[in-house]
Amino acid sequence: MTQVVVVTSGKGGVGKTTSTAALGAALAQGGANVVVVDFDVGLRNLDLVMGAERRVVFDLVNVVQGDAKLAQALIRDKRLPNLSLLAASQTRDKDALTAEGVERIIGELREKFDWVLCDSPAGIERGATLAMRHADAAVVVTNAEVSSVRDSDRIIGLLDSKTEKAEKGGHMPKHLLLTRYDAGRAARGEMLKVEDVLEILSIPLLGIIPESQEVLRASNLGAPVTLANPASAPARAYAEAAKRLMGEQIQVTMPMAESRGIFGKLFGRRAVA
Amino acid sequence: MNLLALFRRRSTAPIARERLQVLLAHERVMVGGSDLLAVLQEEILAVIGKHISVDRDKVQIKLDRGDPVSTLEIDVEVPSLLPTGALARRSELAAARR
What we know:
The complex is a heterodimer. Chain A has an eight-stranded mixed beta sheet with strand order 3-4-2-5-1-6-7-8, with helices on both faces. By secondary structure, chain A is an alpha/beta fold. Chain A is built from 14 helices and eight strands. Chain A is 43% helix and 16% strand. Chain B is α+β, with helices and mostly antiparallel strands. Chain B is built from four helices and two strands. Chain B has helices at 3-8, 13-32, 36-51, 84-97; strands spanning 59-64, 71-76. Chain B has a two-stranded antiparallel ribbon. At the A-B interface, α7 and α14 of A face α2 of B.
């Protein structure tokens, strides 16, 4: 059965789009039929991260408003034939999305794909609530940082009250994806630890994505990091997270603190004390 | 900042953790229903307003959400419309306290 998953966070810049692209590609690499949908109308970026920015003809708003058929707007990935993108509109304003239109499109996508990943815009406005509206599950992307954790907490509250599933009295499964995690800084007491964030938000952990230069490299190239460099630490972490999303029970790999030079070690140790 | 301060730097993550725990405990209640403190504030002002006209600009509200207690401090500036007798008694009282 199709799973509609919203990738959300409340706060901007924590890695929603990167994570949508990487998880979508990882699921597709596992053989599933996947579509990633950009809900960030006016500020679309998923097309860029996926490397499809020059192939967008029709977008989500065109389909919602009936100007284009869904099949015309879906962009098939050049590397993975079972991965598609539905881009957001760049020019229209965010009110262009209607609740009925989104519901209809999610329904149509359910018939075509195994996984529908909705990349939510930041904030708690219309675009964000529409992106989560019809989800079966949510991936809450969070950085180990106070404002991100607070916003995630707020989003968790919305997922439990404003989604179709919640309104019908159902339970919305939520998964925590901790991104840009720096194990070294956490060990030195400079960053919230995984356990801290888990305790505060109390939702199950989907994965820990280590802070890595590979993520920027991948977006520079227009490729999800799981495709750009599958052997890299963030790619492996995303691949693991995708498996867990599919229901596999596997241990979460804890990122290791990067070994520092002799200078760093000298000073790092002092800071721990 | 001198060199010593560099070495003495405390870890900040536990502080972040504590601040978040206190803040979110309050925000969860707030989003779920109504904010008790905000309701209290409105009702208290309404009660005062029944007896004296309160200038909203002369009301100072301080709110400190803490753990384990929160405080709501409402400072209402009331025009001197008390009967003269009462005023006199009040100034006597104030003098006595001094």
